Amino acid sequence: MSEHAIIDVPPHSAADEAEHAGVHDPNLHHSPEEIKREVRVYLIVFVALAALTAVTVASFYALKSYPVGVAISVALIIALVKGSLVAGYFMHLLTEKKLIYAVLILTVFFFAVLIWGPWLHHSSPFN
Amino acid sequence: MDAHAHAAEHEIEIPYNVYPRPDTGLYNGKLGIWLFLASEVMLFGALFSSYILLRTGSVNWPRGYTFLNIPLATANTFILIASSVTVVLAWANLRLGNLKLGRIFIAITIACALLFLVNKGIEYHHEFVEGRSPATNNFMALYFTLTGLHGLHVIGGIVVFAYMAGPGAKMWHQDRNRYTNRIEIAGLYWHFVDLVWIFLFPTLYLL
Amino acid sequence: MAQRRQLRVGKEWMYAGDAEKLLREAMRIQEEEDGRHGGHKQSFIRKYIFSIDHKWIGIQYGMTALCFLLFGFSLMLLMRLQLGWPGHAFSLLKVLGESRAPGGILLPEAYNQLGAMHGTIMVFLAIVPLAVGAFGNYLVPLMIGAPDMAFPRLNMASYWMYLPGGLVMLASFAATGGTAQSGWTSYPPLSDIATEGQTWWLVGMIFLITSSLLGSVNFIVTIIQLRAKGMTWMRLPFFVWAQFVTSFLLLLAFPPLEAAGVLQLMDRVAHTSFFLPSGLVVSGTKLAVAGGGNPLLWQHLFWFLAHPEVYVLILPAMGIIGEIIANNTRKPLWGYKSLVGAVTFLGFMSFVVWAHHMFMTGMGTVISAFFQTTTMIISIPSVIILTALLMSLWGGSIRFNVPMLFALAFLPMFGIGGLTGLPLGLAATDIHLHDTYYVIGHFHYVVAPGTIFAMFAGIYYWFPKITGKRMNEFLGKVHFWGSFVAINGIFMPMFAQGLAGVSRRLYDGGLQYHHAKEIAAATNPFMSMSAWTLLVFQAPFIVNFFWSMAFGKKAEANFWHATTLEWAATTSPPLAHGNFAVIPVVHRGPYEYSTPEYTEADYLPQHHVIGAPPATSGGGMLTAAAVAQREA
What we know:
By secondary structure, chain B is mainly alpha-helical. Chain B has helices at 3-10, 28-56, 70-95, 99-129, 138-165, 170-174, 176-206. With 632 residues, chain C is mainly alpha-helical.
């Protein structure tokens, strides 16, 4: 046996697996046209976000005379829309994998418990 | 053998660091950052919960819009959204193989973030000059704590981006995909920071 | 019939013995080459201080946590001197200094400091780092067939957040006015106005929470992404499932406490009033703060974490017990699917029961009913898990070795702990029992003869894998029996005390109560003596632990003849670099003990290729490496 006898065991690296399986990260292997199309979408979203920010501030002034509950609801709804745009497009949640959705749905549920739990605890009719 | 290969030799090769695992469709860092962001949702959620509890339980809740600088905060909102766009543009350029443009966009992101912090500093200074501090009342306490914690997250983002655009860019030459993934992950974090501000802004300044 | 089996390794066919020799030679050459490439032999600091190897990090966590465990225990031993013989001077107490124990008599403030820090250290510095940081870190990658954790450097970072956090906690003893003394629960307004030590406590907690967070991300990604080929979800050892759920609890429940800690820091340092109501008067002086705060806000945020935290304390323990029971009954765990379903459901429910710690805060009946209901529901998965573990004993071929003794004791002890939780979870009975010694008895039964016994079981069980040596059985049995008797002596009387109305956190142990002073006087000295007896019986363990590490008899790689990968597919200790000579491929579930079709042994490892030679002392590397085999 020579000093550098090598035992040739079957390859088992992830890169090999990926190549052999023909799987590639969709984020890394898009064509330049696809990426340019994505960029266009990002810019549209940016404009939408800027517009919605302006709407937020405008509605604040417009709703001054209304009860504060209305202002809160409107502000929250606009914020949710903006947030969804950021999450959906910039964070590419719209094309994300099931596992990420699962983690986020779980988190959103506990987030809701955290927001409403203490509040409900102290507000009538629960008191 | 060159020095990088030496170093790599002794690092254990962790599967799915760069290429996704077939059944989950994710690479490790992507899953990791989303989990971290989930915990951040709970962190800021706890603070929003505190805000709700303290405000609904109070008799005289000061209205931020009566003394806070809404135009400046609105500008800051635009700045942060713009920085989110520059991050995705950086990432897109890296995927197109253009390191130079990628680094430029990261630099613009950092510039926006720094501008955001400068504006915040101006705001804080204004409050102190007017005699308002966290100890003044619970609204101010929440204002400083919420924006302060958010600001710390902005600083964290700046540090990460500065490293990735600077010394960290060496990784591009070792493993292009790994570098691009890192920018994607940092970008996800940054978008989350933007997202928090999208909710903070109306909550503190407009309601 | 002399059949000589041959294995194909790579492209060559060779006899098993030759193949094994070749593999060892290759490994030796590789290690030599690693050392020969000048400058790449790892420095001491890289290898032992800032290691990124999950096994060494696990050992770091374990050694640190065990030190904190002993320290936390000794705080309680000092407290029990005061409780057993109130007002009596003990020269031992003089170590606390004149400000805390003048003339050897413990002052009430010092008693409170010991109490708050005992709880804090045991929960955050000892049990969780041991159960998750040590056992989890060391074993999870091995059990799933991974070369390391998904993020080795993040792993190192989380240990190096834990240690400073712990040191900050220890340093708080030197603060002016002493360390934290508002209970481990740090309720405001008391904690808001407490002495400097409380600020240190908060800073320490922020380090510890960060450490936890980094760790939990690592665990979840590792378990999802790095399972070896063939290691499907339902083939995972129960221990891994337990760690997986635990990590989700840490990930999502800790941040609210971090937020609360920041708010309390702001109250103390920046003079905010998050938790300070208006009009608070302290020692006759009106507190100069804005007011308008809510002390209950702290309680909500604290218990939002602290309830899931108790499941963090018990789930890894259940995982350890599951592994040890399967192994020492030589049969599969009963109800694997129920165990998995129960542990997942338990984790989920743990987020919606927290206010059962707040029944006495004036909550309304509707909210109270909600939390009582969820609390009763959460007892169901706990019972399912305990039942499955108990049923696993039925028909088993039980080996009464030291790990199994601790595991068997765990079952009734956890049973007592769990059952005594029921009257606490129902508001009507909780009115009487809240904040009494009944509560202390309840949770200590779950954590002390519960979790800590599971920790001991795990140490005795995996010691041969981690060190390659055997622990002494006799000393182990002495440790077990002495601890078992003593620990019940400490905690059983607490239920009686609580029912009689003795409050928690009382400096005199209940003597001030007219209605409870007899029972207090009757039980406290006995409990204190039991506590010190428990200390004595840790000596055989400590001696055994260190002596065996140095001089213990060599243990074969699969010492317990177990089926899971950490035993069957690695050397003892596992290879420093990458754990496995060849990453195993999994073919079956984790508990194929006494499988009828497989007659060559009473255990069938998860990765074993049937027909290949049984695992050699090389830890089954060869069976992992064998791609095919034929008869000569």
